[in-house]
């Protein structure tokens, strides 16, 4: 494509390095609510979807699902600002893309307020023109609705936008929305899992992502 106008980003694993924060909250909620601890792989296999969706893999009991989510969120709030961090070069990359005239936004499966707080803490929020959380839409990723909503908020058709993510669910959502998609490999999923979703391109570093993105202008 040519004529790129905007770039939307996933949050966790793409803009912010929240792996240890997520695992700390999972490790707290598992024993506290389920009475057992799951492996890191089990906890992270559906990162990129809302917590309420992920927890269905841990228990079939709706009451325990609700309690797990509440325990997770309470612990996450307690340690969030201390543990949230960004990947090296993230803020600088956002600044460079914004200076090229691109509108930027975030589309995440986190709650809007929690995602925005993390972006403020790491210094990325000032470069972003919109934020779409799971509580802003009816159908979360991999449905196209979140990406479509982000494009609408920025004022562009999905065909004029690029969606960047580190999870298969991100790429599925962006592709279904009609946007170009970029897979980044510094997040929580391996490259074969990402390339299987046929992204427009794959980036291993922020420099690669910037170069490939600016080539679409």
Automatic annotation (TrEMBL):
Going by the UniProt record, its keywords in alphabetical order are:
Hydrolase
For the biological process aspect of GO, one term held by this record is: DNA repair
InterPro entries for this protein: HAD-like_hydrolase_sf, HAD-like_sf, HAD-SF_hydro_IA, HAD_2, HAD_sf, PGP-like_dom2
**GO CC terms for this protein?**
cytosol
**Keyword Hydrolase listed:** yes
Q: Zinc: present as a keyword of the record?
A: no
Named from the GO MF annotations, one term is: phosphoglycolate phosphatase activity
Q: What is this protein called?
A: HAD family hydrolase
Organism annotation: Senegalimassilia anaerobia
């Amino acid at each position: 494509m040519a004529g790129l106008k905007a770039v939307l980003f996933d949050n966790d694993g793409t803009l912010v390095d929240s792996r240890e924060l997520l695992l700390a909250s999972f490790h707290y909620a598992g024993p506290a609510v389920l009475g057992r601890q799951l492996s890191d792989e089990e906890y992270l296999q559906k990162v990129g979807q809302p917590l309420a969706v992920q927890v269905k893999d841990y228990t079939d009991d709706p009451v325990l699902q609700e309690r797990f989510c509440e325990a997770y969120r309470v612990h996450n709030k307690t340690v969030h600002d201390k543990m949230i961090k960004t990947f090296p070069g993230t803020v600088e990359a956002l600044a460079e893309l914004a200076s090229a005239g691109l509108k930027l936004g975030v589309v995440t499966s986190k709650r809007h307020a929690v995602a925005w707080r993390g972006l403020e803490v790491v210094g990325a929020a000032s470069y972003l023109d919109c934020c779409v959380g799971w509580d802003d839409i009816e159908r979360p990723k991999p449905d196209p609705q979140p990406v479509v909503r982000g494009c609408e908020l920025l004022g562009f058709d999905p065909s004029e936008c690029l969606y960047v993510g580190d999870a298969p669910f991100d790429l599925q959502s962006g592709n279904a929305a009609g946007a170009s998609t970029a897979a980044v490999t510094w997040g929580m999923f391996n490259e074969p899992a990402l390339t299987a979703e046929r992204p427009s391109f794959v980036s291993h570093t922020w420099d690669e992502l910037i170069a490939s993105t600016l080539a679409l202008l």
